């Protein structure tokens, strides 16, 4: 399998506090890789290192074949990123946001025109193109933000808590967009604290207190812990961590 993310003992310290401790894993091309854990487990810290937004304290990693220390700019050209806080400009229209970020990603005028029309058609937002993004419902904002993050057809897209705060129906619709991205050849790395969303991933890692405590397919993890849901898997991991303290 083609490895698109490789990490070895990747660590981030803030003074005496270790936010991510010796994280080691691989992600393969075309996967939906879930990075799960409770709030404060270290998921966002790890993702920021992988995206080149934060320099690791130690350890190594390659993203899309590029070294995390020496080739950060090349990494940024080959990834998309959607933060857990809504990342588009609310005082620009839908179309202005698409064109602005398309320009940042280096799309030509022709590519930008074609992709803008395609994106608007796919999302069913023809009647909203001239509306300020700030006036849109949260679910629409999230779907638009994701679509813009993959406008340049990156090899990997990083999604940080993409479905936080939206209703269950909108969450399911958002995952449909993720599946479509994977079908087009994009690898998806997604953090979430919704354990039911683990079922949508090919493989998942589970973080507790800055460390990866489990990594496998959802089915194998449930089998390993003799449980029927990912919530129960996480409970067992968290309980084991408390016993070891």
UniProtKB/TrEMBL annotation:
Keyword Transmembrane helix: no
SUPFAM superfamilies registered for this protein in UniProt: P-loop containing nucleoside triphosphate hydrolases
Coiled coil: none
Taxonomy, superkingdom: Bacteria
Species in which this protein is naturally found: Sphingobacterium gobiense
Residue span, ABC transporter domain: 5-234
GO molecular function, one term: ATP binding
Keywords for the protein's UniProt record, in alphabetical order: ATP-binding, Nucleotide-binding
Designated name of the protein: ABC transporter
Entry-linked Pfam families: ABC_tran
């Amino acid at each position: 399998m083609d490895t698109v993310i490789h990490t070895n003992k990747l660590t981030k310290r803030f003074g005496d506090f270790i936010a991510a401790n010796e994280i080691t894993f691989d992600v393969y091309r075309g996967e939906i890789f879930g990075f799960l854990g409770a709030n404060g487990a270290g998921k966002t810290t790890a993702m920021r290192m992988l995206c080149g937004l934060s320099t690791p304290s130690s350890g190594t990693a390659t993203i899309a074949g590029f070294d995390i220390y020496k080739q950060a700019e090349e990494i940024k050209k080959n990834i998309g990123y959607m933060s857990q806080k809504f990342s588009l400009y609310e005082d620009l229209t839908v179309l202005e946001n698409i064109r602005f970020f398309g320009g940042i990603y280096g799309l030509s005028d022709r590519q930008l025109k074609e992709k803008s029309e395609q994106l608007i058609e796919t999302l069913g937002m023809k009647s909203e193109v001239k509306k300020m993004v700030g006036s849109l419902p949260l679910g629409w904002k999230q779907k638009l933000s994701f679509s813009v993050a993959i406008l340049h057809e990156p090899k990997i897209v990083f999604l940080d808590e993409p479905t936080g705060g939206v209703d269950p129906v909108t969450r399911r619709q958002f995952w449909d967009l993720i599946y479509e991205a994977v079908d087009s050849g994009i690898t998806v790395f997604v953090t979430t604290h919704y354990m039911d969303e683990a079922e949508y991933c090919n493989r998942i890692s589970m973080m507790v207190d800055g460390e990866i405590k489990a990594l496998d397919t959802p089915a194998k993890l449930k089998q390993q812990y003799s449980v029927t849901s990912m919530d129960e898997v996480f409970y067992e991991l968290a309980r084991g961590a408390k016993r070891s303290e």
